[in-house]
Amino acid sequence: MSGDSMQYEVLSPWAEADPVPMKGLTASRQTDLNGKKIGMFCNIKQASHRIAPVVERRLKERFPSAEFSYYRGKAFSVSEMEPQNIDNFNKWIDEVDTVILAVGD
Amino acid sequence: MLANYGFVTDSYSAASGKGMPGIRSISEKVPCESTVAADIEAGVTEVIDEIIETLTRPLTDQEKSPPPMDTGETSRIIFKGNLGEVNRFFYQRGWADGLPVVPPTEEAVAEMLTGTDFPPDHVVTKIIPRMGKATVEKIAINAVMAGALPTYMPVLIAAAQAIMDPKTRFDTFEVSTGSWAPFYILNGSIRKAININCSSGALSPGDIANAAIGRAMGLIVKNIGGARKAVEDMGVLGNPGKYTLVIGENEEESPWEPLHVSRGYRKEDNAVTVFFPNSFSQTIPMQTDDKGIIQAMINNVRGGGMAGFLLIPAHARYLANEGWTRKQVMEYIVENAVTTTGPGVPLPSGEEGVRKMFSDTGSMIIVVAGGPGVFTGVLTSAGGGAMSGFGNDFVTRKIELPANWDKLVAKYKNVVPTYAKY
C-alpha cells in the first residue's frame, strides 16, 4: 500500500467538543484524621461495599476517634448529581470532613 | 478514589471529563468486583499509608486551579500522503479499527454528503464520553473511512441519534467491562433499497451494507465520542460484534407485523432498532413443533437480562400457523425461561436457586431473520434490562430519507457482489 504514488489529502474524523469547564478542588485537606468524620462512598459494585469496611477498620486502628459515614449508590452509572440523588448526596457531603470513594473495579 | 490498578487511568479520564482532574486516585490490587475477603484485606492493607497521605496532603495549585483540557487537533484537513501513509497516520492517531480505511478526501466526503439533506455543519447529536459533536460532515467522513455508500447516511444519522437516546444506556454499555456491542436491526423498504441482507448469512461478512454501516458506527463512536480502548472502553474480553452487528428483518418472509410496527411505527416507515448485547449464540431445536422451537429459544439463553431472538422464517411461520403471535411467544418465554444460581452460590442480593431470566416481554425482541435451515439464534445482553438496575431498553428510531432518495438508490442499488459461475 505504501508504494502507491497517488496522494490523498484527507479530512479529520476527529470531532470538536465543547471545552469542559474546569472545577478546582476547594475543600481544604485534613491535617489529622482524628476526630474527623470520614465519608465512605460506595458505588453499586459489590466489591465497593466490601472494600470500604476494611478501609474503615484499618483507619480506625490509626485514628481511633475518627467517625465514618456511608453513602451508597443506588444504580449503575447514575450520577449523584442527578435530580433524584442530589439532595441526599449534598446533605451527606455537608456532614463529612473528607470522602473516600471505593469504586469496586 | 480507590481503584484497581487497571482502572486508574479510567478514573482520571472520568474525573477530567467532569471537569475535576484534581481528584486523587489510588491504585490498588483488589481484583475487580472481588468478593474474596483475603484479597480485599491484602489489597487495602498495602495502600493504607497512601490512603492516609492522599487524604492529608495539601492541595497543589494545579489541583485548586486546573488548566483547560486539551480537546485535541481540530484541523479540518489533517494529513496528505499516499494510501499506506494515510492508513498508518489514522491508525497511529487511534482513529482506525485495525482494518484499512478508505481515505476521506474532500471529493469522497462530498459524495457521501449527497446521502442527506442536512447541511454538513448540522449537529446530529453529541457522543460521549467527550461529547464530541457528531456533525453531518463528521459522520460522513467516518462513513467514507468505513467504505459506506451515500445511501447509508440516513441510517447512520438515525443510528447515531438512537444510540444517544438515554434509554439505551450507551454511557454504560459503550465502555463497560461487559464488552457490549451495539446491534442494529433495520426495518422498512430501505432494507431492499440499500441491499441489507436479511436472509442467509446476514450476520456473516460479505454484504457491504451490513458490514459498512456497523463499521461506520464503530468509527463514529470512536472518533466522535472519543472512547479509547483500555482507557474509557474497559471491555474485559472485547467483542468482535464491535466491528459490525447489523441485520435487516426478513419482513417478506415473516408471518408477523414488522418489528418497527410492533414498536409503534407505521409499516411504510423506515426504522433502526438498537440494543447492546454482549454474546451471540445459535442452537438447533430438538423438536420442530411449536413448543420445541420456543424451548430451543429459551435453551439458547444464558443468564437472561435482555435478548434479541433471531427467529428464522420457517420457525416463525410454523409458530404463526399454530396460532402464536409474536407477543404470545415472548410471554411464554418470560414465563418459562429460568436459570439457577447454583447450590450455595447466592447472588449478591442473597437470592439463591431457580429464578426467572426475564422480568417481562419488554426485555426482549423477536426478529424474523435468516435463511433456509433450522438454527435459531439469540443475542443476549448479560446484565442488561429491567432486572439489572441499568434501566436500559431497546430504542427504535425513524430513518428520514433525503428528497433525492430515489435517484440516489438508483445510482448505488447495483453495488452488489456477482459471483463467478461454477
Question: What are the main properties of this structure?
Answer:
heterodimer, A: 105 residues, alpha/beta, 4 strands, 29% helix, elongated, B: 422 residues, 4-stranded mixed beta sheet, 34% helix, flat
Task: Give the largest interface pair and sizes.
Answer: A-B, 54 and 97 residues
Q: Give the oligomeric state of the chains in this entry, treating copies of one chain as homo and distinct chains as hetero.
A: heterodimer
Order of the strands making up the biggest sheet of chain B: 7-6-8-15
The parts of chain A where pLDDT drops under 50 for at least 5 residues are: none
Task: Tell me the strand order in the biggest sheet of chain A.
Answer: 3-2-4
Distance between the termini of chain B: 64 Å
Specify the helix fraction band of chain B.
25-40%
For the secondary structure, the number of strands of chain A is 4
What is the beta-strand fraction of chain A?
A: 15-25%
The number of E-state strands of chain B comes to 15
Helical proportion of chain A, percent range: 25-40%
Shape of chain A: elongated
Are there runs of chain B of 5+ residues with pLDDT below 50, and where? Answer: none
The chain-level structural class of chain B is alpha/beta
Q: Average the pLDDT over all residues of chain B and give the rounded result.
A: 94
Judged by helices, strands and strand pairing, the structural class of chain A is: alpha/beta
Alpha carbon gyration radius of chain B: 24 Å
Written overview of the protein:
The complex is a heterodimer of chains A (105) and B (422). Chain A has a domain at 37-102. Helix content of chain A is 29%, strand content 20%. Chain A has two helices and four strands, in the order E-E-H-E-H-E. In chain A, helix 1 (46-62) links the parallel strand 2 (37-42) and strand 3 (67-72). In chain B, the strands form five sheets. A four-stranded mixed sheet of chain B has the order 7-6-8-15, covered by helices on one side. A four-stranded mixed sheet of chain B has the order 9-14-10-13. A two-stranded parallel sheet of chain B has the order 1-2. Chain B starts with a strand and ends in a 10-residue tail after the last helix. The longest helix of chain B has 20 residues, at 37-56. In chain B, helix 12 (290-299) packs across helix 14 (326-336). Classes of the chains: A alpha/beta (105), B alpha/beta (422). Chains A and B meet through strand 1, helix 1 and strand 4 of A and strand 1, helix 1, helix 2, strand 3 and helix 4 of B. Strand 1 (8-11) of chain A pairs antiparallel with strand 3 of chain B.
